[in-house]
Amino acid sequence: MGRRAVVTAGTGGIGLETAKGLAAAGYAVTVVGRDPGRGARAVEQINAVSAEPETRFVAADLASLGTVRTLAARLAAEGPLTLLVNNVGAMFVDKQHTVDGIEASFALNHLSPYLLTELLLDALKAGAPSRVVNVTSGAAARFVKRTFDAVEPPGGYYGFHWYGRAKLANLAYTMDLAKRLQGTGVSVFAADPGGATTEMNNGSGRVPKIVTPGLRLLWPLVRRTFERRAATPVPVAAQSSIFAALDASLTEQTGLLIDPECRSVEPYNSSTDSRMAEAVRKLSERLAPLVDA
Ligand SMILES: NC(=O)c1ccc[n+]([C@@H]2O[C@H](COP(=O)([O-])OP(=O)(O)OC[C@H]3O[C@@H](n4cnc5c(N)ncnc54)[C@H](OP(=O)(O)O)[C@@H]3O)[C@@H](O)[C@H]2O)c1
After folding, report:
1. Which strands form 130-135's sheet, in the order they lie side by side?
2. Going along 222-267, which residue ranges are E strands?
3. Is residue 151 part of a domain?
4. How far, in Å, is the centroid of ligand 1 from the Cα of 183?
5. Residue 1: predicted pLDDT
């Protein structure tokens, strides 16, 4: 097996298109998802565009930290890793908790990719030059609480804002990790796909309760903005992740946010702030210890 790539939530939506892009560039791609039937169909589609058809599906519910640990142990045991695309993410209309009792959007958009990345660092260092791509969102850019002393911010649950805050936590982690890994040959990028009509967006963007009562007063405008953003074809939305994962212009660079037009832009919402990074790190270490107690 040649260069190995892992794409989480790689059996549908933006992740599937990302996996196709990596496979076409010659990577042996592992796609992770929950549903084996969907995984098998994804493998067929990815192999159809592969330079070397070496795709496989690995089943894992990434909302469970125990499952993330098991997945990481399996992947790490297989040797050096060249690319990790943490694409998993979701917005929930109603508040939910995972099997670990953690609010689901924080768990899936930040803690799960955080834990998987930390547990694969040795494999990524062994595969250097290697890259980590964390998929972010413009939802992190505004209207989110920027304190991270607890998973759940004070006040009511609003799916869009809590999703954005979890993405901001992950973006702060991404920028901090890039600094930590300088000199190791592991580059770390965030990629913003913009918007696309995927499962994540089908439905939830039409439910006013995902935003605060104040923003609901502007609902027709907010809804139009969501719909306009979600109008991008999914293969186009995958381009920022593919660019961050593969583009030669990023060789030896790190700590960049790649926007939907594949440009390097200022990280959203002061996510390079070292105090924010420290708060996210402490919370992440407490909730998702690298070794299960
Ligand atoms: N769509 C947008 O407009 C948009 C905008 C900005 C950022 N993003 C970000 O882009 C990334 C991809 O979004 P998307 O819209 O493509 O999402 P999506 O269509 O909802 O993703 C579907 C994929 O996620 C997998 N999945 C869902 N829950 C999972 C879980 N608990 N464990 C493992 N796999 C899981 C699904 O597989 P199974 O069903 O088999 O589990 C499938 O492979 C996310 O990080 C999202 O936050 C999306």
Report:
1. 56-59, 28-33, 4-8, 83-86, 130-135, 186-191, 256-258, 264-265
2. 256-258, 264-265
3. yes
4. 32
5. 55
pLDDT digits (tens, 9 = 90+) for 67-95: 999 999 999 999 999 999 999 999 999 99
Classify the C-alpha dihedral 158-62-272-252 as positive or negative: negative
Residue bearing the bigger pLDDT, 292 or 182: 182
Does the residue 293 lie in any domain? no
Residue 174 and residue 255: Cα distance in Å, rounded? 7
The CATH number for 115's domain is: 3.40.50.720
The pLDDT tens digits for 195-226 are 998 888 777 778 999 999 999 999 999 999 88
153 lines ligand 1 (CB under 6 A): no
* Dihedral pair phi/psi, residue 92, rounded to 5°: -115, 130
Range of the domain at 130: 4-287
Query: From the alpha carbon of 86, which atom of ligand 1 is closest?
Result: 45
For the whole prediction, is pTM greater than 0.90? yes
Nearest to 191 by CA among 236, 223, 160: 236
